[in-house]
Amino acid sequence: MNEQGHIHPDPDAGRVTDEHPGLPKPRRWWAIVAICFGTSLLVLDGSIANVALPTIARDLGVSEAAVTNVVTVYQLVLVMLLLPFSSLGDRLGHRRLYQAGQVLFMIASAACYFADTFTILLLLRAVQAIGAGMALSVSAAMLRQIYPASQLGAGLGLNSVIVASSAALAPTLGGYIVGNLPWQLVFVAAAPLAIISLLLGRFLPDPEPRKQPSKWKSGVLSAITMLLLVGGIQLGTHDALTWGIAAFALGIVALYLLVRREKRRDAPVFPVDLLAKPVIGLSALANFTSFISAGALMLALPFRLEIGMGYPPQTVGLLLLPFPLTMLVVSPLAGWASDRIAATKLGVTGMGIAIVGLLFLATMPDQPGAIGISWRLSVTALGFGLFFSPNSRLLIGRAPRDRAAAAGGLLSTSRLFGQTMAAVVVGIILAGELGLGPTPLYVSCALAVVAAIASLARFSQRDNPANG
Question: Does the N-terminal or the C-terminal CB of the chain have fewer CB atoms within 10 Å?
């Protein structure tokens, strides 16, 4: 039963583990504005570089496969640090870590304007990622504190609107900058949003540091594990197959040691306690594979549109716009619906639609025209939009409240790990000279099928409270 006294039509709908009342009004509204600007900052910077990659490759004299490291390095550092930072946030207080990350991110963004070599650009992107990781690791936990428990789905839906709006602005703004201004400005454009978010930061939930023993060893092992796993795959895509295999094998060993260590601990840095709950574990898997699918789509399309079809960068940004614009409309409706309808039903339906859309994109003619590209992207975005918010609500809402930061870290890690793997997958396809055809889209389609299967598997778990 929700706060208005209505009974949910499905036992999986609207289920959370507490009835937290959220922040009082009007503070809640100002806190929402603050976190919306913070989310916009991170999403815009994470997406705006995609349309600039071909230009950066030409200007700095690197290959098309190598330039994807601008995205991969940023995401790799994020994946390494999200779980350790979520644990650190519990100790220091979520708001303190969130705002410190924004300050670091803003400084690194300004420094990117002076990047004149590929190496310097990658180093600054790594520093940006450290700041972003500090903020993202606790943002979902703060959302859960801001909103009442019965409105968490709607809150995540609103957050998805901000994500979609920022993603919609990113290719258009990036295309304009690349076509008319120094490309370095694509990494600086989001910095002013940090100032606004920091000015409103006092309305965010108060820091509630917890007395916990230091977990730095687990944090370091977690970061090393992610570095070896993702870094090993990345090395294998850049003519270092032997080193890549060796690093990945060491990553598997490190993962085994990490899991064994964390099973013995309360509130582990690597959330084995949450992953052991089938509903949360399956949701994390679905989140991971769906973001590889969506990320590979949005990374590969600029190459196909600009190099394969001959569109200029400014036009490419406009052609990609239907995807985030459709997400902008669908995501809040899906979040609102997830407070009333089973997230599993919404997720399976969404992934089915996304699969159809990806097949339409893979089989489009060589010159489909703007309308032909737009409606195919809109159908695909409709499917992903129906999936992301409900799946996130299920993962966050089923976690105990004292593990909200860990659940948020898991959500962000699975998302960023997926986006990192998307860049790796696209890099492999580009290196194999298959990136200008339908191959990346068929790969995205296969991964969407995996996400649909993981979502469908939750049906057997939905009626058992012990499962999460």
Answer: N
